[in-house]
Amino acid sequence: QLQASGGGLVQAGGSLRLSCAASGFTFDDYTITWFRRAPGKEREGVVCISRSDGSTHYADSVKGRFTISSDNAKNTVFLQMSSLKPEDTAVYYCAALYGGGCPIYYGMPYWGKGTLVTVSS
Question: Which residue has the higher pLDDT, 79 or 72?
Answer without folding.
Answer: 79
